[in-house]
Design a protein that fits this description.
This protein is of the alpha/beta class. The chain folds into four domains: about 1-90, Arginyl tRNA synthetase N-terminal domain (Gyrase A, domain 2, 2-Layer Sandwich); about 125-260 and about 380-430, HUPs (Rossmann fold), CATH 3.40.50.620; about 270-370, no CATH class; about 435-570, Orthogonal Bundle (Isoleucyl-tRNA Synthetase, Domain 1), CATH 1.10.730. About 50% of the residues lie in helices and about 15% in strands. The protein has helices at about 1-20, 55-60, 60-70, 95-105, 135-155, 170-185, 195-200, 210-220, 230-255, 265-270, 275-285, 320-330, 350-360, 395-400, 405-410, 425-430, 435-455, 470-480, 495-515, 520-535, 545-570; strands at about 35, 45-50, 80-85, 85-90, 120-125, 160-165, 260-265, 290, 295, 310, 335-345, 365-370, 375-380, 380-385, 420-425, 455-460, 465. It has a five-stranded parallel β-sheet with strand order 7-6-5-11-12, sandwiched between helices. A four-stranded antiparallel β-sheet has the order 1-2-4-3. Strands 8-9-10 form a three-stranded antiparallel β-sheet. Strand 8 and strand 9 form a beta hairpin. Helix 6 (about 170-185) packs across helix 8 (about 210-220) and helix 8 (about 210-220) crosses helix 9. The longest helix has 25 residues, at about 230-255. It starts with a helix and ends in an 8-residue tail after the last helix. The structure holds one RNA strand.
RNA sequence: GCGUUUGUAGCUCAGUAGAAUAGAGCGUCGCCCUCCGAAGGCGAAGGUCGCGGGUUUGACUCCCGCCAAACGCACCA
């Protein structure tokens, strides 16, 4: 990376300067103490290093420090300058042309970091109840989770994506009883869900169970014992509804380009005895006590703000109990790191799950929980609160409305810490107001230029054909045997674009290391913007063959980098729009 | 009351690790197609970085207090 090259040159020069006693009282320098930054004003340079922080060791003024360091720098064809305590740097033709060459050489692997520590990661996200369709909030975790998985894999990690199915709790009972009512309605009974608000909470009154009821009747035409509801019938209803909803969820995920390696059933965790095993281990190690008929886990000994019930007075488990077992199971499967994406409404759970991991002898730092703020829908400029019952817009509705590409992009484009305003109208527009189209348009435009480069042109008035600016073979030669010096003719007018293409590498690295996928969305918009700007001020196809080849190389570079980035986002990079 | 997160231009958001004039997009206003996709570009206006202290040579950034918003604070999942 250019900024690392620059930093390395300066650090090497500092060591040499110290040896010659040119940095006052400074006797040693440890690498990494300084860092590069982007000058606010581009006139200063492409990158800058502020050496003021060395002043207290050297005991001489920052400008003099900078000046003295500069005397030891191998400048090659790069430009260095000193302003106050800053050493400014402008990349020369070698670095810039090599940067473009690297895109051609590495192609789909361009930007993959080298010499980084990689891990075996289990990434858990969405993990919804199989009790109904996904809502918009799930869409954010789905998009961000799958993008993060793609990103971490590209970085070099081994990533295993898992969806935890909450198929064991009372929610499933609620689902089964709700289906019973829908079935009875379908069979002609005059019956409805309770109108009393509190009683109604024991049901899922949404319309989505109506088609499920119809299917149920087809499969079990002789099933009539709904009143009173027998245990066997209830189980039949529960299983049927659960399987049905799971299938609906999985089909939608598939369509949304979200692909899990495993769906982990909470029920299987209970059946395997792993839940009881964990509870017993906690009892054995004295981390459990009885109070008011329930068993409590001393999570407060491990940083939680209070102890938590792990066995209810009626002997059943809490949700936490299973979750503890689940996380222990993940660790026992040998993962170096567990990353969970949870809604911010679950933040209270982080401390207790970490506490349980520690109490059971594992390293709680292996668990990294990314808490995501929720999603607001904006329709015609008005915020629509995602209430649990009213105004419930499903993820499927949203995708039908705005498309997979726009939904994925919008759901990924904001910092996970901020609530996301999803503007449906904006996500649908085909103009620069919509960042997805803006970026896709840049890609399509690049493709279009490449098509024009090898196509003969027909003059509609005269009917004459002008030969293609270059042959297909010449274009292939340009791509397959790319030479670094190809772009030199356009270096001056395209520097910003080249630097932006080069920045892809550091963007990917920090994005993966900070788990912030929105930076990819931002980057892709910035690159598109630089490209549009370049396009407007530089004619690509022209009679000047060398200039044309230079600019075509950049167009190809932009196309490759945009495609790589969009691949990580799993958003289409269209050839035409 | 306690905890987590957020407060930056009219709107939606960036701002890496504390530094040189606070950055984008949208919106508003003005300009640019006989020429590769104008679904684009160029420019202008627009800011007491929620408020008040503190640390520092230097704070949007770190610390403390306050104000506002969202979400939690179950023997629910």
């Amino acid at each position: 990376m250019i900024k690392d090259y620059f930093l390395n040159e300066i650090e090497t020069a500092i060591k040499k300067a110290i040896k010659d006693n040119k940095l006052g009282e400074m006797k040693e320098y440890t690498r990494g103490s300084l860092s590069t930054e982007r000058p606010k004003n581009a006139d200063f340079g492409d990158f800058a290093i502020n050496v003021s922080s060395l002043a207290r060791f050297a005991r001489i003024a920052p400008p003099l420090i900078a000046k003295n360091i500069l005397e030891y720098v191998e400048k090659d064809n790069n430009e260095y300058s000193v302003v106050a305590g800053f050493i400014n740097f402008k990349a020369g033709k070698t670095l810039l042309s090599n940067a473009i060459e690297e895109i051609f050489k590495k192609d789909t692997n361009y930007g993959k970091p080298e010499n980084v520590k990689t891990e075996k990661i289990l990434l858990e996200y969405i993990s919804a109840n199989p009790t109904g369709p996904f809502h918009i909030g799930h869409g954010r975790w789905a998009a961000m989770g799958s993008v993060l998985a793609n990103l971490l894999k590209f970085y070099g990690h081994e990533v295993y994506q898992e969806f935890y199915i909450n198929d064991a709790g009372s929610q499933i009972q609620k689902l089964g009883r709700s289906l019973a009512i829908r079935v009875r309605q379908e069979l002609g009974e005059d019956i409805d869900f309770p109108t009393d608000e509190i009683e109604r909470k024991n049901f899922y009154p949404g319309d989505y169970l109506i088609p499920v009821a119809k299917e149920f009747i087809k499969k079990y035409p002789n099933e009539k014992t709904f009143e009173p509801l027998s245990d066997t019938t209830l189980k039949l209803l529960c299983d049927f509804a659960k399987d049905y909803e799971e299938k609906v969820q999985r089909d939608l995920l598939d369509n949304f380009r979200v692909h899990f390696d495993n769906f982990y059933s909470e029920l299987s965790l209970h059946k395997s005895g792993k839940v009881e095993e964990c509870v017993q281990k906690l009892r054995d190690s004295g981390k459990i006590y009885e109070k008011e008929g329930a068993e409590w886990f001393k999570s407060s000994e491990y940083g939680d703000d209070q102890d938590r019930v792990i066995k209810k007075a009626d002997g059943s488990n809490t949700y936490l109990t299973a979750d503890i077992a689940y996380h222990i199971d993940k660790l026992e499967r040998g993962f170096d790191r567990l990353i969970n994406i949870w809604g911010a409404d679950h933040h209270g759970y982080v401390a207790r799950v970490k506490a349980s991991i520690e109490a059971l002898g594992y390293d709680p730092n292996k668990l990294e929980v990314l808490l995501g703020q929720l999603v607001n829908l904006v329709i015609n400029g008005n915020e629509v609160r995602m209430g649990k019952r009213k105004n419930m817009v499903t993820l499927e509705d949203l995708i039908d409305e705005v498309g997979v590409d726009a939904t994925r992009f919008w759901m990924s484009m904001r910092n996970i810490d901020t609530t996301l305003d999803f503007d449906i109208e904006l996500a649908k527009t085909n103009s620069d107001e919509n960042p997805v189209f803006y970026v896709q348009y840049a890609h399509a435009r690049a493709c279009s230029i490449l098509r024009n480069a090898v196509e003969e042109k027909l003059n509609t008035e005269t009917g004459e054909k002008t030969p293609a600016p270059m042959t297909k073979a010449e274009l292939d030669e340009l791509i397959n045997n790319y030479k670094a010096e190809t772009i030199l003719p356009t270096l001056d007018t395209a520097k910003k674009l080249i630097l932006k293409l080069e920045e892809y590498k550091s963007m990917i690295k920090t994005s993966a290391e900070t788990r912030q996928v929105y930076t990819i969305c931002r980057y892709v918009q910035e690159l598109a913007s630089e490209f549009h700007s370049f396009y407007n001020s530089n004619r690509v196809i022209s009679d000047d063959k060398e200039m044309m080849r230079a600019r075509l190389a950049l167009v190809i570079g932009v196309k490759k980098v945009l495609r790589n980035a969009l691949n990580i986002l799993a958003v289409n990079a269209p050839e035409k729009m």
